[in-house]
Design a protein that fits this description.
281 residues, globular, PYR_CT
């Protein structure tokens, strides 16, 4: 079981800039917990995401000596991939690919066709630099723009990514519209058909629907879950203030109640959970 903690996703939409020192201290606390991966920052235009303008400085001050956690950075183009890949500390590069043409343009200023072309180049960069590419299929369960969506479209996207050699794909419920039925269908179809690909779930949710979503994905074979402490963050396109990231503490409770030993440092987890309130205040 892999839990990916996503402070980057929790922070990036905040208008008030979180001081760099606060980010460093908080992410260092998360590194002590024992999560599989920390999605810590992004190498994108500071004009697009001002909150992430200090990612390189944050990275330079992380204490990686006594952690088993790997680092993931989000990128949106070849330039960002080249910059991220130049840092030996980073293990994963994450690229958002949307099944919604509208969202792809809004999120990365590219068409889906242009994004796929960029992905091919980014996959090549990852191969040469010893990094792994994580592709997020955003709007993977629907979109608010009226763009066409169905499960078969998502499966076709996976087929195209497979041809590029992508080994990690995370299905992203960008606006919180997934339900147990479409979660079960997609993971049940994809995991057996692409046994060489690691599938993840990046699910946004309301406080009352998180468990049914996690339960559906887990029972359909998913073993990679993204979360953010206290459910901070989420997508502004959701148009629902109750829709946020999957709360990591809920993920931990669910899996431990199902008898899984996640190997987390409980004291460090409690400290990070307590600190999150002030970080995002």
């Amino acid at each position: 079981m892999k839990i990916i903690e996503c402070p980057r996703d929790a922070m990036q939409g905040l208008k008030k800039f979180i001081p760099t020192e606060v980010k460093i201290d908080y992410i260092n606390m998360l590194l002590n917990v024992g999560f599989d991966t920390i999605d810590f920052g992004s190498f994108v235009s500071p004009k697009a995401i001002p909150q992430m303008a200090d990612t390189a400085e944050v990275l330079a001050n992380l204490d990686l000596k006594n952690t088993k956690s790997k680092l993931l950075a989000i990128i949106a183009n070849v330039r960002g991939a080249e910059e991220a890949a130049s840092h030996r500390e980073i293990d994963y590069l994450g690229f958002p690919l949307s099944v919604s043409e509208t969202f792809q343009q809004r999120n990365t200023n590219k068409s889906i066709a242009e994004a796929m072309d960029q992905l091919a180049h980014i996959q090549d960069i990852c191969g040469k630099q010893g990094k792994a590419l994580v592709t997020y299929i955003s709007m993977g369960f629907g979109n608010p723009y009226g763009d066409p969506w169905d499960a078969e479209t998502v499966i076709r996207f996976v087929q195209d990514l497979d041809k590029l050699g992508v080994k990690v794909i995370s299905l992203s419920d960008t606006i919180g519209v997934s339900n147990p039925e479409n979660i079960t269908y997609l993971f049940s179809e994809l995991i057996p058909a692409f046994g060489h690909i690691e599938f993840g779930a990046h699910l946004h949710t309301t406080p009352t629907t998180w468990q049914e979503k996690v339960d559906a994905a887990y029972k359909a074979g998913c073993r990679r879950f993204d979360g953010a402490l206290r459910g901070y963050g989420g997508c502004p396109m959701a148009k629902d203030e109750l829709v946020g990231n999957m709360a990591t503490e809920n993920l931990v409770d669910y899996f431990e109640n199902n008898g899984l030993n996640l190997g987390l440092n409980k004291q460090a987890f409690a400290a990070a959970l307590a600190a999150s309130s002030s970080v995002f205040s």
